[in-house]
Target: InsA N-terminal domain-containing protein
Amino acid sequence: MASIQVKCPSCQGESVYRHGKARSGLQRYRCRDCHHCFQREYLYEANKPGVTDKISDMAMNGSGVRDTGRVLRISVTTVIAHLKNSSHPPSHRSRSMKPVTKPERVKQIETSLLKNKTTNGLFWQPIM
Model:
C-alpha cells in the first residue's frame, strides 16, 4: 500500500490526518498544528486556493461580475456572494485612503458627472 505525503497548505505542517469526506465525496484532511481543514484536490473551481484573491483583484481592476465568472470558470452568484461577504479590503489597497461614507461618495459621483458633461452649459434637472 502506497502512502501519500500530505502537507498543510496554510502552515506547511506534516502532521496531517484524514478528517472525513466532503460533500463532493473527496477526502478531507486536518492539520494537527493549526487545525486547518483542507482537501488535496477540489471538484469545484471556486473552492480552489487563490480564487477568492483573484475575484477581489479582478473587481479592483474593473472587471464585471459576469466577466470574472467567465474567466475563473465559476458561477456569477459565487462572485457576487464573495464580493458581498468580503469584510476585509483587498490587500493591495493603499492604507492612506480614508473610508468614504455613502453621501460623500454620491456627492463625488455627481460632481464628476457634472465636470464631464459637455452639453454647451445646459443641465436639465427634474421638476418636482
User: Anything to note?
Assistant: The first strand starts at residue 16 and ends at 21.
